[in-house]
Specification:
The protein has about 325 residues and is of the alpha/beta class. The chain has ten helices and 14 strands. The structure holds uridine-5'-diphosphate.
Length: about 325
């Protein structure tokens, strides 16, 4: 049984939720985070914490030597599609280059399993319907490319160096676990549900829909939303699977249900009871029309089952989280 997990980016949004789940299941967990966006307060005091940048090889190696993890779960990276179009070098540096440095260190220190946060953006602009792990990968933005390159590095390195890897391709993640002690204020948020909740709370005068002329039923893009706690648990299911079968694999992480941007904004208005102002804007660079996961691989191989798939529940959790952020900022 796997005992020691090193989580990179454990002070960030998905990392901190996975950390919470892993500690809850009794794993011994350490965190590497440079705190560029994450919060120190979310890391339980019993977890070893290394405030280290992944490209700082001697310090990363020192952490590996000290903690001796058998599994690394790698979250640290940059996540904004639009920013990746505007500043691609940042994405290849923070996502591809930093991952390469980490993988190299893990090989050197005999880490047995490596779980990687990838993205549905690797699929580019699929034709429609759901995408499975074997669907073609043609990223249409530097973010997707930066993650797909890391997937390739892992696949090649694992063949030569004998470790096992799992690639988790996240669809759209939202919501929160209110047991977490701290949340990062995000004044420049770009993700749809987050921005919509902030608009409910009066942090923005309105929200803009980026494109109403897509070839979809209501003209807006379609995405598949997964609750953060379901996603966090998926990592531990995958780890069990890798350990039990001594296997590497790729997994889509979503709910298998598509919602349009308009449907999401309706849900946020319904759940909050606030009819905030919605504007129609032009398309955002790098956005695919529709991304919906075929999740059968995750469910069938690992036994994962969503516990919070209802979109109103996801939205309500996201709204509660934004309220908590606002309250803690005003203390
Ligand atoms: N979106 C929008 N207005 C916003 C933020 C997002 O219309 O203020 C749209 C965006 O164009 C995309 C969808 O919502 O079609 C999901 O975008 P998000 O940034 O949340 O996630 P992504 O799918 O890009 O990872």
């Amino acid at each position: 049984m796997t005992k020691k997990i090193l989580i990179t980016g454990g002070a960030g949004y998905i990392g901190s939720h996975t950390l919470l789940a892993a500690v809850g299941q009794g794993y011994d967990v350490a965190v590497i985070d440079n705190l560029s966006t994450g919060r120190r307060e979310v890391i339980p005091t019993e977890c070893a914490f290394y405030e280290v940048d992944l490209v700082d090889k001697p310090k990363v190696e020192q952490a590996l030597k000290e903690f001796l993890p058998d599994t690394v779960i790698h979250f640290a990276g940059s996540i904004d599609v639009r920013e990746s179009v505007e500043n691609p070098i940042k994405y290849y540096a923070n996502n591809t280059y930093a991952s390469l440095a980490l993988i190299e260190a893990c090989v050197k220190h005999n880490v047995q399993r490596f779980i990687f946060s990838s993205t549905a953006a690797v699929y580019g602009n699929p034709d429609g319907g759901t995408v499975s792990e074997t669907s073609p990968t043609f990223p249409i933005n530097p973010y997707g490319h930066s993650k797909l390159m890391t997937e390739q590095i892992l696949s090649d390195a694992s063949k030569s160096h004998g470790f096992r890897y799992a690639i988790l391709r996240y669809f759209n993640v939202a919501g929160a676990d209110l047991r977490l002690k701290a949340a990062q204020p995000t004044p420049m948020a770009t993700h749809l549900i987050k921005v919509a909740c902030q608009t409910v709370l009066g942090l923005h005068p309105s929200i803009k829909i980026f494109g109403t002329d897509y070839e979809t039923a209501d003209g807006t893009c379609i995405r598949d939303f997964i609750h953060i706690s379901d996603l966090a648990r998926a990592h531990l299911n995958v780890l069990d699977y890798m350990t039990e079968y001594d296997a590497s694999a790729v997994f889509n992480c979503g709910n298998g249900q598509g919602y349009s941007v308009k449907q999401i904004l309706d849900a946020v208005q319904r759940v909050s009871g606030i009819n905030f102002k919605i504007e129609h804007g032009s398309r955002r660079a790098g956005d695919p029309r529709s991304l919906i996961a075929d999740t059968s691989c995750l469910r069938n191989k690992t036994g994962w089952v969503a516990q919070h798939e209802d979109i109103d529940e996801i939205v309500s959790s996201a709204l509660a989280w934004e309220r908590k952020i606002l309250e803690s900022a005003s203390l």
